Amino acid sequence: MGLFKTPEWGVKPIQDKHKMLGGLDYFILWSSLGVGLLVFSAGSFLSAASFFDAMLAIIVGSVAGSVLLSLAGKIGSNHGIPSLISMRPSFGIRGSYLPAILNVMQLVGWTTFEIMIMARAAEMLAGSVMPYYFWAAIFGALVALLGIAGPLNVARQWLGKFAVWIAYGTSAIIIISLVNSTDMAALISSPGQGMSFFSALDLVIAMPVSWMPLVADYNRFAKKSKSAMWGTFIGFAMTNILFYFGGVLIGTSDVIGIIVAIQAMFFGFLMLLLIVDEADNAFADVYSAAVSTQDIFSKINQKYLIIGFTALSTILATVVSIQDYEVFLLLIGAIFVPLFGVVLTDYYVLRKQKYTEQMLYTRHNRLGIGAPAIIAWALGALTNYLLSPLSPIYMPQLPAIGATIPSLAAASLIYFAIVQLRPRKNQPLAKEVD
Questions:
Q1: Domain spans of the chain?
Q2: What is the Cα–Cα distance from 380 to 414, expressed in whole angstroms?
Q3: How far is CA 273 from the centre of its chain?
Q4: Rounded CA gap, 221 and 152, in Å?
Q5: CA-wise closest residue to 203 among 30, 395, 62
Q6: Helix spans in 80-163 (H)
Q7: CA 206, CA 208: separation in Å to the nearest integer?
Q8: Is the domain 21-325 a CATH 1.10.4160.10 member?
Q9: Whole-prediction pTM value?
Q10: How far apart are CA 94 and CA 101, in angstroms?
Q11: What are phi and psi of 248, to 5 degrees?
């Protein structure tokens, strides 16, 4: 298969002949996607908690979040479908449009951040050789090429043969050097600045949750669902733990400051090699933004969408700055934790892992909207908002329970209750709309 002659996968189920990726491929893919300077930045927020609470939150949040991530991916590998299509049996075809729009918005944001980081790092390492916006254009072009190449080529050619080894090597060197240069005794005894375990947990679990609307876009190519699930879980949990821990050691949320700190420890080429790996994350973001758009506009050519979203993100990377990153993470949790509380409850509890093509590609009522899912999602998101620092009524002096677990439970239980109690009179319409 030529590098840029991949099929237009679209949103229809993947045929068995194209299910080529095994458990090791998914371990490589998701461990690589768990690597990133933005994860360092997220981990640095946990410095406000005691070291014990921070580490417990990192381990529990990474494991719990990766379980949710792998379960969401399993829907895709079981049925060969991308993530947004997996929402249709619960939300309806038109009901899935709002999650698709919100997902595209977060993915354009992530792609912008990734291109910005790569360009800033390259500019700092190269000096005045080229101005920042030239570097942004170069990395934008690389991201677009990876997106056009598609998941199979990226997983097998870019990651499996090249980028993942850079990620593993540089990550190990950076983490070991950070440990050696940190006063671990003082860090371990630090009482923090008042952040609770549950508040720290919300920030950790936001990272794997941010990948949940993307995971099935890649796991649909799995030879076997079980091996893909385990590869996803182990790969992402491992690197998420390491990089959140590294963020605690660095202690600064400023991404440029992180680049400066790492560059000061090592020869510039190590920093540059780590930046090259950021292209994997940007590829996944822009590719899934295109797939999510096809949930609404299935006829648009995927390659045009990839080029368009990359161009938009590259432009944004030259005019915006990273601000309120912690708020961005909390918003992701507020939106997508309850969303997948509904999706996972529908698939694993109510439908017993049995989706049919009719459920995925036909309207279940005239509006094409699953009202129970929308209601449960809205109430779960409201629960998350009210219990998070984003809320104007948030009172940190009260016993903290966090926002993740209550909002996940609320959305799941509300959806289950509504579906079980409502009359079962609506049947899927025969008309196929996508």
A1: 21-325
A2: 8
A3: 22
A4: 8
A5: 62
A6: 83-86, 88-91, 97-126, 132-149, 151-153
A7: 6
A8: yes
A9: 0.88
A10: 11
A11: -60, -40
Half-sphere exposure of 103 (CA within 13 A, CB side): 35
Each residue of 262-278: pLDDT tens digit? Answer: 666 665 666 666 677 78
d(CA 191, CA 187): 9
User: How big, in percent rounded to 5, are the helix, strand and coil portions of the chain?
Assistant: 75, 0, 25
Block residue for tokens 């309850």: 338
**How far apart are the C-alpha atoms of 46 and 96, rounded to whole Å?**
34
Residue 411 structure tokens: 């959305």
Would you state the structure tokens that stand for residue 93, as one six-digit string? Answer: 């075809």
Coil vs helix vs strand at 322? coil
Non-local (6+) Cβ contacts of 291 within 8 A are 9, 11, 82, 83, 84, 217, 302
Cα→Cα distances 317→133, 134, 261, Å: 8, 11, 22
- pLDDT tens figures, 227-266: 999 999 999 999 999 999 988 988 766 666 777 776 666 6
Asked if 63 and 200 count as a contact pair (C-beta separation under 8 A), the reply is no
Query: Minimal CA–CA distance to 303: which of 317, 316, 293?
Result: 293
pLDDT at 12 over 70: yes
**Pick from 248, 201, 213: which is nearest to 109 by CA?**
213
Determine the Cα–Cα distance for residues 343 and 415; give it in Å rounded to an integer: 9
